[in-house]
Amino acid sequence: MSDVQLAVCDIQGDTHGPCLLITGGVHGDEFESMVAIRRLRRLLSSANLCGRVLLVPVVNEPAFERKHRCAEDGLDLARTFPGTSTGTITQRIAYAAARLISGADYYIDLHTGGTTMSVWPLAGYCLHQEPRVLDMQRRMARAFNLPVIWGTDPSLQGRSLSVARDANVPAIYVEYLGAATCSSPGVQAYVEGCLNVMAELAMIDRPAPSSLVEYLIEDDRPSSGHMQIQNPAPCAGYFEATVELGQVVDQGQLIGTISDPLGDQIVEVRSATRGLVLVLRTFPRVDQDEALAVIVETDRR
Ligand SMILES: [Zn+2]
Fold it and tell me: Among 136, 242, 277, 285, whose Cα sits 20 to 30 Å from the Cα of 170?
């Protein structure tokens, strides 16, 4: 079985400094990440860089080729880390990417909601047990400068960030919309966010922008941060949301309906908590138990 060769761009600065890894396309249908990293490649020059930047625009090329979240073995790469060198294609990609992650000093993983979901722009991290790592992750998330900062359950397994956590590599992931499109503002926010983090790490000179952060939410309950298990659909059908991303909803508020083909049977879906609509399903056809939304608790209106 052949080794997986990830397409990596390695930019060495003229002066010594930390190694920052930035990955995109862990899921094959998340496009802002891919475009932003290619743009970063053109922007970064060794002359103005302290340290080293490793860029991987499309980690999961087999999934991208299929126009899908996952490669042909059906495994979700973001649940497969650290992978194995002798497994299926997704397991081997995880293995190759895990070696890059654990060898870096800092790590940023760019995602979006993919084909079926859309995510209010956020920078997330695990609530790491090691104060030094957690503090750095908070700084990186704040520097990335998206509206929401979300610290979650440190025990989640199988993620790219799980590899970083176990290697004590400060790491954040970011999300920006999705819905099977590539948002230009999302690409721009990702480029600027990565540059802002590099400035925070003293790898480049760049003035700090004014902060766009509106929410700082930390939740260490088990499975907080697992987007695919919250607000599951009570039945299959056609999902129509009645709320918008970024909106604050009350407990019990209608967030959408699921309809049968004639519209005779309409099932209402209500929010289990009061909070911010962080993730919303945008692909109308839904199976029973698929996620419809992630709503995170907040006191703000
Ligand atoms: Zn993703």
Answer: 277
Question: CB neighbours (10 Å) of residue 206?
Answer: 13
240: Cα within 13 Å, side-chain hemisphere:
10
Q: Which residues pair with 109 in a beta bridge?
A: 23, 173
Q: What pLDDT score was predicted for residue 46? A: 74
Going from the Cα of 16 to the center of ligand 1, the distance in angstroms, rounded, reads 32
CATH number for the region 9-218 comes to 3.40.630.10
Ligand 1 centroid–CA 240 distance in Å is 23
Domain ranges for the chain, please list them. Answer: 9-218, 230-297
Q: Ligand 1 center to residue 267 CA distance, Å?
A: 29
Ligand 1 centre distance from Cα of residue 4 (Å): 20
The CA 111 to ligand 1 mean position distance, Å, reads 4
**Structure confidence at residue 248 (pLDDT):** 95
Instruction: Find the 56 Cα to ligand 1 centroid distance in Å.
Output: 14
End-to-end CA distance of the chain: 54
**How remote is the CA of residue 76 from the centroid of ligand 1, in Å?**
9
User: What's the whole-number average pLDDT of the chain?
Assistant: 94
Task: State the pTM of this model.
Answer: 0.95
Q: What is the CATH number of domain 230-297?
A: 2.40.50.100
